[in-house]
Amino acid sequence: MDGIKASNFIEDIIINDLESGRVKSVVTRFPPEPNGRLHIGHAKAACLNFSLAQKFGGKCNLRFDDTNPVKEDADFCDQILYDIKWLGFEPAGVFYASDYFEYMRDCAVMLIKKGLAYVDESTPDDIRLMRGTLTAAGKNSPYRDRGVAESLALFDKMQSGAVPDGGMVLRAKIDMASPNMNMRDPVIYRVLHAPHHRTGDKWCVYPMYDFAHPLEDALEKVTHSCCSLEFEDHRPLYDWVIDNCDVTDKPHQYEFARLNITDTVMSKRYLKQLVDEGFVDGWDDPRMPTLSGMRRRGVPAHAIVAFCNEVGVAKGNSIVDAAQLDDCIRDELNATAKRYMVVPDPVPLDIVNLPDDFAEDLQVTEGGEYAVPHPTPIDPETRATAVVTRNVRLTPRLYINREDFMPDPPKGYHRLVPGGLARLKGAFIVRCVGYDVDADGKVTAVRCEKTDEVKAKGVIQWVDRGSAADIKIRYLSELVPDGDGELTERVDRNSLTVGTAKAERGVVDLPVGEGVQFFRIGYFAKDAKNPDAFNRVVELKSSYKAK
Questions:
Q1: Three-class secondary structure of residue 394 per DSSP
Q2: How far is Cα 201 from Cα 178, in angstroms, rounded to an integer?
């Protein structure tokens, strides 16, 4: 392991395992359940598992834990695979728990024959009561001492379809007095009459996750099975299944802290509730922390990976400031985004000393600089410097932002005022020679003259009235801020607001999802479902201070 340095405790373990000879090569896996879209928390787990395999010259599989046909479907599988590849990862193999259903059934039969599993006909409520509490031992089921032959026959009956849902379960026989509740004769198979998205109606019994997961790891020769901390108490059961199912390649489970972010829902169940109850327009709503939602919002995949790497891997849970994620997004877009002039609250401005037919095309680099191209931005594909230019039409008839002109400005205001100077971004300096107001005193038009001045404190953006595009701007904020109360009580109904703006014509031709900067407003991306609207990806200025 010369030259490889550990950056977290799991890498320390891997280096020791390789040096001791416990493992010859590293195999990890990313095992989502296909019952929803991946969110930013899954991205951390994916980054960890794929980066471990890459760093140590091993491989990482993508495995769908599809053991619950009621909640899972093929569409979620397709979307998860798309998300993983979008992040930049290529699985060594794509597997499904359902690939191993027959093997799992055979392992269950083996446990029955060893006297380590039995069929229980107790009701779910009775089984729950028999488990006891954290301070009181559980009680043996009246079926716990059922004979091997009878349990085998009843397990066959469960598989035949003759038992209704909940009528029987197969339980591991471990220790009803164990201080670990997971070891108190856990259910390892249940009856479920539901079609599976891959196996159809072939099965009416399905393994429980705690039984299936270690067997899947063993079959795929996983060496380091990395799970979030909530599975720490499940590890004894994981090891019990491995030890008692005569597994040849024995995987080991390790736990790390899951990702928690302020003002961000990190539960697939709650995200599904937001979708099902219509608080959002789907799993890919740009306010959602799902990868598909973040992609629609315009977040670059590279920024998500950079954020996950920056957060790192720890043994204890903590909460990450959402501003840290915004900072990673901003850093990426600042290096890669094209720049455009957009006027969200337009006021007409006429340059009265230019002829009506005056028109000039200013050459602009996609990095936002006018007249003189320079080698920016970084190309998002090759991440190398590139120069791309476009033309922006300048005429005497423009729009400017309302806040860029004030008849009675406060102290320190350096934009356009009556009689004052301001530079039109990328062009010349103008002097305000007049303006109009309506009955309420609201400015309705501004008149200026082009000057030969060379200095002006203020620079204002503009768009040509004749070629300006009408766009909508979607401002996004936290969908479910942190706080007390039920999820639906905390939903901010004003987390999406929509305004209008005038924009450079070239904005219309931007591809969906590409993050660009609108000067002085923020970073935006065209929305996939509303092509005339742009989602704000992140604000221009950071509020994050690293601790």
A1: strand
A2: 37
pLDDT of residue 277: 96
Q: What residues act catalytically?
A: 33, 258, 268
| Nearest residue to 213 (alpha-carbon basis) of 193, 242, 192, 190 | 242
Res 456: pLDDT: 92
pTM for the whole structure: 0.91
Q: Quick: pLDDT tens for 277-317.
A: 999 999 999 999 999 999 999 999 999 999 999 999 999 88
Cα–Cα distance, 204 to 170 (Å, whole number): 13
Taking a C-beta distance cutoff of 8 angstroms, is the pair 451, 429 a contact?
yes
The first and second tokens of residue 499, run together, are: 């305004």
Is the CB of residue 93 less than 8 Å from the CB of residue 61? yes
| Helix (H) / strand (E) containing 29 | strand 27-30
- What are 249-259's pLDDT values in tens digits? 899 999 999 99
Q: What is the largest CA-CA distance in the chain?
A: 102
User: pLDDT band at residue 531, thresholds of 50, 70 and 90?
Assistant: confident
Q: How far apart are CA 234 and CA 357, in angstroms?
A: 76
**One-letter amino acid identity for 503?**
A
516 vs 317: CA distance, rounded Å: 35
What is the per-residue DSSP string for 198-254?
A: TTBTS-SEEE-HHHHHHHHHHHTT-SEEEEEGGGGGGHHHHHHHHHHTT-SS--EEE
User: 506, 414, 398, 408: which is closest to 450 by C-alpha?
Assistant: 398
Instruction: With residue 261 as reference, give the H or E element that holds it.
Output: none
Round to whole Å and give the CA distance between 20 and 18. Answer: 6
Q: Token pair 């987390």 is at which residue?
A: 495
Task: Quote the tokens at residue 131.
Answer: 């488990």
- Let me know: does 223 contact 29? Beta carbons within 8 Å: no
Q: What does the angle CA 531 – CA 536 – CA 541 come to, to the nearest 5 degrees? A: 155
All residues at 6 or more sequence positions from 49 whose CB lies less than 8 Å from its CB, including other chains: 28, 29, 30, 60, 226
SS3 38: coil
- Burial class of 333 by CB neighbour count within 10 A (0 to 12, 13 to 18, 19+): buried
* Poorest-pLDDT segment among 26-30, 64-68, 359-363, 413-417: 359-363
pLDDT at position 383 over 80 = no
Residue 225 token pair:
């099975």
Q: What are phi and psi of 324, to 5 degrees?
A: -70, -40
Q: Do 445 and 435 form a contact (C-beta atoms < 8 A)?
A: yes
Question: In the predicted model, is pLDDT for residue 373 greater than 80?
Answer: no
**Which amino acid, residue 405?**
F
